[in-house]
Design brief:
With 206 residues, the chain is mostly helical. The protein has one domain. It is 56% helix and 4% strand. It has a two-stranded antiparallel sheet with strand order 1-2. α5 crosses α7 and α6 runs antiparallel to α7. It is elongated and about 60 Å long.
């Protein structure tokens, strides 16, 4: 009977284990990550901008608008730009990515500048692809392929960098005690929710 009730109501408010499994409550528990995309702790402060006590991911709040504005601006000057120049500028500007492994982006001002340059480079690369003298669907395939590879490599780098940061932290991937997840832990406890980031990497006690 218990299983039947669970199937009839896909997201029941509570199961018999006493935990609250409300989908809305669960989504709300992740609120601190929606804009910052990083834990709210000292090691990740360089990755966020704080505006009115709200934490915003620098890569998103700076990068995406830069790319969009770049695409729009370049559109109006395309006629005076050589096709090869678009590729050249794309490569040069996107090469600012290497400021990250060189640790120069530890300075927040340099990180902000890097996000602007990198995403402007993406705008140049975008127009280099779509202004190629090929049928539109060929250009679209090239766009998906090229940007798909770039985004995959960038996200892999960011994931590895985040893992390294957490691994080198005094909490050593222990998200049950990490201050960056404190707000989520408090919300889950207050609303009787299962804590989704419960540590899976605890070191075995010697």
């Amino acid at each position: 009977m218990k299983d039947k009730n669970r199937n009839e109501n896909f997201f029941p408010e509570h199961y018999d284990d006493g935990k609250n499994y409300s989908l809305f409550s669960w989504i709300k528990s992740l609120k601190p990550l929606y804009l910052s995309h990083h834990p709210n702790c000292a090691p990740f402060k360089k990755h966020v901008i704080t505006i009115r006590n709200k934490h915003f991911c620098i890569g998103c709040i700076i990068g995406y608008p830069s790319a969009l504005l770049g695409v729009i601006f370049i559109y109006f000057i395309l006629e005076i730009l050589a096709h090869d120049f678009l590729l050249f500028m794309g490569i040069v500007l996107m090469a600012s990515f290497f400021l990250s492994p060189l640790k120069l982006t530890n300075l927040k001002k340099i990180k902000v500048l890097q996000k602007i340059l990198f995403n402007l480079g993406g705008a140049f690369l975008f127009w280099w692809i779509f202004k190629a003298p090929l049928p539109f669907y060929y250009n679209l395939i090239n766009f998906i392929f090229i940007f798909g590879i770039l985004l995959t490599l960038i996200n892999l780098y960011h994931a590895a960098s985040a893992y390294k940061t957490c691994k080198n932290c005094i909490h050593d991937l222990d998200w049950d005690t990490c201050p960056g997840f404190q707000e989520m832990r408090t919300y889950c406890k207050k609303n009787n929710l299962p804590y989704l980031f419960k540590t899976q990497f605890r070191k075995k006690e010697k």
